[in-house]
Amino acid sequence: MTERPELDELPDDFTRVLCVVAHPDDLEYGTSAAVDRWTKAGKTVTYFLLTRGEAGIDTMQPATAGPLREQEERDGAATVGVTEVDFADYRDGHVEYGLGLRRDIAREIRRRRPELVVTGDYHDRFGGGAPNQADHRAVGLATLDACADAGNRWIFPELSAEGFEPWAGVKLVGFAGSPQPTHYVDLAGHFEAAVASLEAHREYNAALGPDFPAPRDIIQMVLGGGGEAAGVEHALLLDVVQRR
User: Fold this and answer.
1) Beta strands 235-242 and 183-186: pairing type?
2) For residues 244 and 230, what is the distance between their CA atoms, to the nearest angstrom?
């Protein structure tokens, strides 16, 4: 019998959450169930996406796919109670770790002033062993560093000149899809919301073809597997860095 990893339940003592990812649909593979739990509990959750996912549909030109996928992301976010969805202008597939990326994420952290930041994993493989994509890795690592940058007045002083004063209030940074999770979010009652949020990406899902697992099946794999590890029915697993 496989032993379950030692997992702690994610503390619930926060009021504002910022989710930072590379592409539309990144949050809909399970994280959106936790978002649904948080918004229904009265917490404020906002999304910040670095690209519009314009390179994600092989049969559609990027100029067409970008606006379509942006709208699908807004639709998916709305199903879990998120109305504030912002996009940067990075090119899909070309996101590179660096000072510019850290600065743009730090700016959004200062704007939103969250206590919890959730992003994707920055390792080369996901928890299941599948290879992680370059944009995901760059955004995950830059987000971790930007949480510190956001609280330091002297790393990006131009942000203060723009009107974004330092914010050192990020207490927790959670990485979804990590091969080494430390915490879980119990998602009893939030499975269907996660399915609906992924189903909102209609054109993207259709382009994946009939052999690709349906949204409900994917969400069950992610959250059901997380639940098995945590000892509950459905759970989101996170690798959590506690900053304070």
Assistant:
1) antiparallel
2) 24
In a domain? residue 221: yes
71-102 burial by CB neighbour count: b if 16+ within 10 A, else e?
A: ebbbbbbebbbbeebebbebebbebebeeebb
Q: pTM higher than 0.85, yes or no?
A: yes
Is the pLDDT assigned to residue 136 strictly greater than 70? yes
Residue 196 host element (H or E): helix 191-199
- Cα–Cα distance measured from residue 237 to residue 244, given in angstroms and rounded to the nearest whole number: 21
Percentage of the chain lying above the pLDDT 70 cut: 98
The span from the CA of 173 to the CA of 156, in Å, is 20
Q: Which of 109, 100, 91 is nearest to 167 (CA)?
A: 109
Which residue range forms the structural domain that includes residue 154?
A: 8-242
Indicate the number of domains in the chain. Answer: 1
**Would you state the structure tokens that stand for residue 73, as one six-digit string?**
């992301």
**Rounded distance between C-alpha atoms, residue 101 and residue 104, angstroms:** 5
As a whole number, mean pLDDT of residues 66-76 equals 98
Phi, psi values for residue 91, rounded to 5°: -80, 130
- Residue 3 resides in a domain: no
Q: What is the pLDDT of residue 3?
A: 54
Cα–Cα distance, 70 to 201 (Å, whole number): 10
Using CA atoms, how far residue 45 sits from 40, 206, 219, in Å, is: 10, 28, 21
Q: Please, which residues have CB within 8 angstroms of residue 227's CB and are 6 or more apart in sequence? A: 187, 233, 234, 235
List the CATH number of the domain containing 12: 3.40.50.10320
Q: Which residue has the tokens 């690592």?
A: 141
227 in Cβ contact with 217 (< 8 Å): no
